[in-house]
Amino acid sequence: MTPASDVISEADRPLRADAARNRELILETAAVVFAEHGLDAGYDEIARRAGIGVGTVYRRFPERVELVRALFRSRLDEIAAFGEQAVQEPDGWAGLTWFLERLVERQVADRGLKEVMAQTLVDDQQVADGRKRLELVFEGLVERAQAQGTLRPDVRAIDLGVQLVALSAITTEEEPELWRRYLALALDGLRAGAVTSPLPLDAPADQAVPELMRRMCGR
Amino acid sequence: MTPASDVISEADRPLRADAARNRELILETAAVVFAEHGLDAGYDEIARRAGIGVGTVYRRFPERVELVRALFRSRLDEIAAFGEQAVQEPDGWAGLTWFLERLVERQVADRGLKEVMAQTLVDDQQVADGRKRLELVFEGLVERAQAQGTLRPDVRAIDLGVQLVALSAITTEEEPELWRRYLALALDGLRAGAVTSPLPLDAPADQAVPELMRRMCGR
DNA sequence: AAAGAAGTGGAAAGTCTGCTCCGGTTGACT
DNA sequence: AGTCAACCGGAGCAGACTTTCCACTTCTTT
To answer: pLDDT per residue over A18-37, tens digit each?
Structure first.
């Protein structure tokens, strides 16, 4: 059908100056809108706030996933970097709790980020890599704190992930920091000294996690 | 305009046999549908499953709240009864945890119930009374366990309510009981012995609770 | 500066969802 | 049994949201 050269040139051709400008504008605006309304905010909201037509948004990002990818590829690495920073702290418990606080702070401030971290709308290599990196650093922190005897030995990193997503729903307009109270309670239950009896179920299997996270984010 | 007698007779007139039958059918079906999809499930879903027309549902319950009221008035009392049963147990901690388990079980099984308990769609005296009764019995259980020195003294009943709603989102098709693991973790953080440092914030103020609950139920 | 390719805006078409309305049916009452 | 008000079903209307389309503008190239 179409010669291969056409396909390549079509994909690689640089955007026209005004189109490139608009692309940036869309990304900036979408970052704000997604943070407020989550990943399925309307395109017209983005267009309106950016002061451009809806058509322009659809032309640049015909698939919503593309927009999401473009926005969150770097964000996940940014978050993982916090984890690597937390490893610097010699006290495993202190490092872990510091990391958890940073994570919830981010998720509370950005609903879109929360949804991306909770596995919704994935299927991108780079996003998957970012999340994988995050998982690894998370597991490292957990295992270290357990080795130091401060974190209870019967939890896995995914348990903390689940609690994190649950916690990040605990905010209000008037009391935006409320989650900190419940994080403190949860942390007191995670200390090695808090163990009373074996946990009644195993941590969720890997393949169950995506559906779980989707549910926790409100369908 | 209309004579007063007309208004009265209109309100009091008993339903025709077929209409009464359908009303029951709607209630039965709505109980199932609300349990599955939450309080804003579509009326057509209810109609379809009941094998009747949408119009019939709308005619009988023009306002959704009326349907919700009719369904949940008794349910809340039923739940409060669990609390009163829990008081029988002399060990305050055992009674409280037993009660919490019953609550989450119910909320996980019935999304509509969860939303009603979480203060959404209220403004009915009887529903408000039911919730009030529930609150009181809850506070009683909390205070008793604190007096017995098993529950940490720095939490209030509303804290348990918040954690409960958060926990009841933790379910999956394949692992419906998963919430039990996280309830166990939360409980370990609620024991008197788990206190490490003062909680960083106060429990949410009463007037902040409705918005909080609404957010936690997914908008 | 002229030509044409690329990009734009927003009106209009398409979709989805909640609700109403009315021709036809059923049950209650005499 | 006949009359009529109450009730039924579901086609279809209204409004919100999503997506496409194209006449017009802007940029790039020669």
So the answer is: 999 999 999 999 999 999 99
